[in-house]
Amino acid sequence: MNKNELLKFIDDNRAECVQLEKILTSHKALAPENGGNGEWEKCAALEDFLRSHGITNLERFDAPDERALHGRRPNLVATIPGKKDDYKIWVIAHLDVVPVGNLADWKTDPWTVVEKDGKLFGRGVEDDQQGLCSAFAAAWAFVANNVQPERTIKLLFAADEEVGSKYGMIWLLQNHPELFDKKDFFLIPDGGDSEGRTIEVAEKNVLWLEFTVQGIQTHGSRPDQGLNACFVANRFSMTLYDLLHKEFNASDELFEPASSTFEPTKRAANVDGVNIIPGKETFCFDCRILPRYKNQEVLKKIDELIAEEEAKSGAKFSYTLLQNAESKATDKNSPVVKALACAIKEAHGIDAKTIGIGGGTVAAELRNLGYDCVVWSTLDEMAHMPNEYCVVDNLIKDAKTLALMFAAI
């Protein structure tokens, strides 16, 4: 069977990808931090689907997590043996999704895929099920037609990506390092653009902080008898926002946006009544920092500002690091970048370009340990949005790109 026949098989069987999207979306694979019980049921459904399509060399590497269903977070590896095994080609997608947010913003049930105008609507259909389904379709084309790829293909469906990968990629690298080799190619279909042109080779550092401000609760009419933690927190947030953008103001056109970002995000509920001055305030910052800076530099500035604000207000501050990750870059001339660029050229007819991103993926964990990896997909970037959708043509086009990469290497 030649390459064109493999690509035609993928085209002819797009209905199977749509069906897999529907199955996966129906299982709410939310992390415990996001109000769910993990990825167990979704992984089990995926295993059944893969086996029914002839992909039967499956292994589970489950991370213990007592909060999750059955006390485990599943990491599933599918292997398609190649003609050569001197290095392997990994495609790494994640099983978990984020919460739907405000349900009123959705036009359809987020947990039931709706197909309309060439798009699939539902939570997770793009992030990261599009990449997962593309990887399946590409691998299945070889398995279904008894074609052996040039190199062994490894599909990894990982847990816990959306809240830090402690039970996914990080756990695997710490507990099963024998799975991976520095010669292997790693492709993560978890970011991209609407053309499929951009190959991500670098990520900004990620720093997530949860601050707590302790004041004194009192009646709304007697602020003189208390210490308004809400007011102190708001003032601190605005000052911190300005300070960090001023101190870490470098620009790097590899990234979009080209600067570091420091954004106040989540805020916890404080009091139950309008006429109560809060004595405690909890809020978060999401910082995406250019790699030229160290996260410790940012934390030093935060500590200095906290000391100033405590002296000024009398309130007490503390913070927890929810994520603290720094990332190396993949050489834009590395073999995996060149191989993917060639496949993109053949499948899409376009010249790829390398970029950096602000979003965090499992690529950071791999790169920091010396593994060359790329992040790529053809996406409309609907991740985490209401009415998230996947363009079916993009899914199929990406599957063809992966199949060409599998066939050529």
Provide structural commentary:
Helix 6 runs antiparallel to helix 7 and helix 8 crosses helix 10 (392-408). With 409 residues, the protein is of the alpha+beta class. A hairpin with a 7-residue loop joins strand 2 and strand 3 (72-73). The chain has helices spanning 3-12, 14-25, 40-52, 129-144, 169-175, 229-247, 295-313, 335-348, 363-368, 392-408; strands at residues 58-60, 63-64, 72-73, 76-80, 84-94, 114-116, 119-121, 151-158, 185-188, 198-203, 205-214, 218-219, 261-267, 276-277, 280-289, 316-325, 353-357, 373-375, 389-391. The chain has a six-stranded mixed beta sheet.
Total DSSP helices: 10
The oligomerization state is: single chain
Task: Assign an overall shape.
Answer: globular
Order of helices and strands: HHHEEEEEEEHEHEEEEHEEEHEHEHEEH
| Main beta-sheet strand count, sense and barrel state | 6 strands, mixed
Low-confidence stretches at least 5 residues in length (pLDDT < 50)? none
Number of strand segments: 19
In whole angstroms, how far apart are the ends? 17 Å
Write out the strand line-up for the largest beta sheet, numbering strands in chain order.
1-4-8-5-9-18
